[in-house]
Design brief:
By secondary structure, the chain is an all-alpha fold. Helix content is about 65%, strand content about 0%. It has 10 helices and no strands. The chain has helices spanning about 1-5, 15-20, 25-30, 35-55, 60-75, 75-80, 90-95, 100-110, 115-130, 140-155. Helix 9 packs antiparallel against helix 10 (about 140-155). The longest helix has 20 residues, at about 35-55. It is elongated. The N and C termini lie far apart (about 45 Å). The relative contact order is 0.13.
């Protein structure tokens, strides 16, 4: 996970992992079938770390802020778990065996599943835009944007 955290999944190779942990590439094959298995394990650990960061006892607003902060703090891990170039396309189901899906943590924080889903969608969208650098020269920070949208989502 340390290597992906620093360099991103695209830079990962068996040789790079071996060098990073101080073993031969052949030694890695005793523990992993190949690079995809390593990436899958790192993505699983990333989702568990995210779930830990979100915590069990938090409001929807707190969950959204923690979700966006984790994505900004750990952009490579976020992209691996949820990004277009990562394992997020179709592989998330098995990854969540290691920890609760972030959406479920949002669902637990609200009585209304639609409200919880709306908060998760907004948090995930803001996080994705921030990590992908698509907010450009916006005068509002990702967390300010999340807060402005959250206010509109709250029931009157």
């Amino acid at each position: 996970m340390r290597f992906v955290r620093r360099h991103g999944a695209k830079a990962l190779s068996l040789r790079a992992v071996a060098d990073d942990v101080g073993v031969s590439s052949q030694a890695l094959y005793r523990h992993f079938a190949g690079l995809d298995e390593i990436l899958f394990d790192v993505a699983r650990e990333a989702v568990v770390e995210l779930a830990d960061r979100l915590g069990d006892e938090a409001s929807l607003a707190e969950l959204g802020e923690r979700y966006v902060r984790w994505a900004i703090d750990e952009p490579h891990l976020f992209q691996l778990a949820f990004g277009e170039d990562g394992l997020g396309n179709g592989a998330l189901g098995p990854m969540f065996e290691a920890g609760p899906p972030p959406q479920q943590l949002f669902m637990r924080a609200a009585d209304d599943p639609d409200e919880a889903l709306a908060h998760w969608v907004v948090a995930h969208g803001v996080a994705t835009l921030a990590v992908d650098g698509l907010l450009g020269e916006a005068t509002v920070t990702p967390l300010d944007a999340l807060d402005r949208i959250r206010i509109r989502l709250e029931p009157n």
